[in-house]
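Let us practice reading a record.
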Amino acid sequence: MCLLGCDIGSSSIKVSIVDEETGLTIGSDFYPKEEAPIKALRPGWAEQDPEDWWAYTKAALKGAMAAANVKGDAIKAIGISYQMHGLVLVDKKQEVLRPSIIWCDSRAVSYGERAFKNIGEERCLSRLLNSPGNFTASKLAWVKEYEPGVYDRIYKIMLPGDFIAMRLTGDIVTTVSGLSEGIFWDFKDNKLSDDLMAYYGFSKDLIADIRPTFGLQGEVTASVAAELGLKKGTPVTYRAGDQPNNALSLNVLNPGEIAATGGTSGVVYGVNGRVNYDTLSRVNTFAHVNHSVERTRLGVLLCINGVGILNSWIKRNVAPEGITYGELNDLAATVPIGCDGLSILPFGNGAERMLQNRQVDCSVHGLNFNIHGKAHMARAAQEGIVFAFKYGMDIMNDMGIDIRVIRAGNANMFLSPIFRDALAGVTGAVIELYDTNGAVGAAKGAGIGAGIYKSAEEAFASLQKIKVVEPDGFKANAYCGAFDVWKERLESVLNK
C-alpha cells in the first residue's frame, strides 16, 4: 500500500509516492520541467494562476503513478504541502476570481504596516505573534481596495494548498497552521482574530472551515478519481505550508530543532516550545504542524526571498551559455573565499521581511574590472546568499534559538559544496543532509493523519542521513571575515 504527497511550489509541482511499510519513495515526478512562470505586472508584484497549479499537479501525479507502477486503489491517503502566504479567491462555483498573489509579492507591505500601528504593535505581537506585514490578510486588504468588484464576488479565500485540496475533494477547508501563516490567528484566544478581521473589514464568512493538520480533510471526488486514475473516496489527511512541512520531512518537531531549505527562496525554520516573537517581525512565528493549545510548538521562520532565484539568474545571464549547476559550482570554486573583495547582496525578489519589509534589490559591491570575472560573480552570489542566512540567524539567536545543527534535504542550494561549506563555516553549525523532499514529507504526513503511522517517529524511521558537513576552522575564519565585509556593505545600503 502507498501514500501520495504533493508539494505545490512556485517553480514546480512535485509528487512522490511512498511505500507505507518501508517508507521508501517508489515513484516521483514534477511539472513543469522548466521553472513555472511568475507574472510581475509591476515592480514588486508576483502572481501565478491557480489553475496552472492544478494542471501541473495532474501531470506530476500521473507521472509519479506511472513511475511507481501503481493503481489508484493502492493509494491510501494524500498529503499536500504548498508555497506559503499566497492568496487564492474563488466564487460560489469554486471558480478562481483572479490570479493568486503569491508569497514574494510586495504590494501589501503598507497595508500591514498601517494595521500594525493602528491595531497596536504590542497587541499584534502578543496575539498574532507578528506584524500583519506582507502576508495573506494584507494581500486581501489590497484586493478589497483596488479590486472591489472582485472582492464582492469572493465566496472563500484560500491558501495554495487549500485550493489544490478543493480541486481534489470539492471541499473548501483550511487549518490553524494555515490561518496563522496568513496572520489571521489569535494565539491568545485560540481563534480567528477579531482584531484583524474588524480592522480590515473582512467578513468571517470568507474564511474556510478549519480542519486538523493531521486528519480527514476531504475525499477525492468521483470525477477527479476518473480523470487521474485515483480511487473515489481516497482521503486527504494532511496539509501544511512548505516550510513547516519541510521541517516535518526532516523530523524537526521539538524545541531547538532546526530545518533549512535553499530553493527559490531560502529558509531557516526553528521550533520553539514557548510563545516568543521578534519585536521587529524580521523573523516570523507561526503554528507548527504539531502545535496545540495543550503543547506549544511554534515555528520561527527566517525567509530570504532571493536565494535559488539569484543562483539561477547568474546561471542564465552571467555564466557561460549551456553550463549546468554542477559546472557553475566548479567555476565558482576556482576563486578564493571572499571573491577577492567582491560582494553581492541577494535581495532582488521582492520586499525582505528580514530587512523590515524593505525592497532593497540586488546589488554588487567592490567590482574591479581588472580582477573580477564570471567565476567571481558565481561565487559571490552563493556567498552572498549564505551571508544573508547568517544575518537572519543572528536575529534568531537573539530570540534564544541556539542553532548548532541544521537539517536539510540534499537538494537545491545544498547540492553546492561552496554553499554548504560557507554556511557551516560562517555559522559554526553542523549541517546534516537527508534523502527527503517536501512531497515525501507530505506523503508521510498523510500516513500520520490517516492513522497508518502511530507517530512521527514511526513515519520517519526510514529517514536516511546521507552527508554531514562540519565547520572547517581555517575556512571559517575566512568566511567570517568575508561576512563582516558583506554586512558592512549591507548596512551602508540600509542606512542610505
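A brief commentary: The chain has a mean pLDDT of 96.
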